[in-house]
Amino acid sequence: MTARLIVCRERTQAGVSPRVIRAYDVVDDGTKLANSRPFITAEPGGTPDGFRLDVDGNLWCGWGMGNEKQDGVKIFDATGKPIGFIGLPERSANVCFGGVKRNRLFMAASHSLYSLYVNAQGAPGG
Q1: What 3-state DSSP class applies to 77?
Q2: Is residue 27 a contact partner of residue 5, using CB atoms and an 8 Å limit?
Q3: Over the Cα atoms of the chain, what is R_g?
Q4: CA distance linking residue 125 with residue 54, whole number of Å
Q5: What integer pLDDT is reported at residue 67 of this predicted model?
Q6: Any residues with CB less than 8 A from the CB of 4 and at least 6 apart, and which?
């Protein structure tokens, strides 16, 4: 299995700012990055923020920008396909897995901290 590095960045073109999360292959015993590619491009108004991986390679992203249809956490599978959404009453800036089994998702939002037990386990070390 090839290791992946996932990076969130913003690109501005003609007043439009799609946020792009890019994936890179980690090669040469972890010393180089290769094969840069878009992993997720946020929909208009969508804003990904802090993220973590689970042991199955799914990406859990804090998301939103003051819009009830987007505020919360979006979950994407290893190919970048959206597979879930946890709605919150405010945008989520960061997420992390905790608890003895790493199955409790902590979601740091604009004014609150939320937590929820999930049917997933966070990847070790993050």
Answers
A1: coil
A2: no
A3: 15
A4: 11
A5: 73
A6: 23, 24, 25, 26
Give exposure, 41-52, as e/b (b: 16+ Cβ within 10 Å).
Answer: ebeeebbbbbbb
The 10s digit of each residue's pLDDT in 103-117 is 999 999 989 999 999
- The CATH fold of domain 3-117: Neuraminidase (2.120.10)
Say if residues 74 and 84 touch (Cβ distance below 8 Å): yes
d(CA 52, CA 58): 8
Low-confidence ranges of the chain (pLDDT < 70): 1-18, 66, 126
- Spatial contact of 68 and 87, defined as CB atoms under 8 Å apart: yes
Domain coordinates of the chain in residue numbers? 3-117
Query: How distant, in Å, are the alpha carbons of 36, 40, 41, 92, 126 from that of 114?
Result: 33, 25, 26, 9, 18
- Quote the CA–CA distance of 123 and 126 in Å, as a whole number: 6
